Amino acid sequence: MKLRDIPDATFVAIDVDGSFTRVPDAKGAHAIWFQCPCGKHHNLIAFEPTIDTEPTTRGGLSRTGGRWQRTGTTLDDLTLTPSIDVNSTSPGGSCWHGFITNGDVR
Ligand SMILES: [Zn+2]
Questions:
Q1: Which one, 15, 22, 40, 44, has the greatest CB density within 10 A?
Q2: From ligand 1's centre to the CA of 75, what distance in Å?
Q3: Using 50, 70 and 90 to split pLDDT, how confident is the model at 57?
Q4: What DSSP state is assigned to residue 55?
Q5: Within-domain flag for 56
Q6: Is the pTM of this model over 0.85?
Q7: Is residue 11 part of a domain?
Q8: Does residue 1 belong to any structural domain of this protein?
Q9: Would 86 be classed as within a structural domain?
Q10: What is the domain range of residue 55?
């Protein structure tokens, strides 16, 4: 599926308190926000390098436990590495494990 077609998919800026705001044109983005392919919740994936802003000092790390390497600056060409394994440490196991590559989510 295309990242652009996933409900609520948007770039976001993360504040030092961990809150975040949408940045539709990606300027100032620290992360991507989108509905998880499992359909039960949303994911906030912090990446680096950030887009036209300094790295956030909190929030991203505390929420995701790590950062992904980014290329691309739009929902149509975004690539994050390595793979994204959501809830991999929960008792129920991972709900989604996949890739965002050139705007494709699989
Ligand atoms: Zn999920």
A1: 44
A2: 19
A3: low
A4: P
A5: yes
A6: yes
A7: yes
A8: no
A9: yes
A10: 6-105
Domain count, the chain: 1
Distance 51 CA to ligand 1 centre (A): 26
Cα-to-centroid distance, 42 and ligand 1 (Å)? 7
Strands (E) across the chain are located at 10-14, 20-22, 29-35, 42-51, 68-71, 79-86, 96-101, 104-105
Q: What percent of the chain has pLDDT over 70?
A: 91
What separation in Å is there between the alpha carbon of 48 and the centre of ligand 1?
22
Residue linked to tokens 């359909």: 39
Bridge partner residues of 12 (DSSP): 22, 31
Strands 68-71 and 42-51, by their bridges, are parallel
How many Å lie between the centroid of ligand 1 and the Cα of residue 18? 20
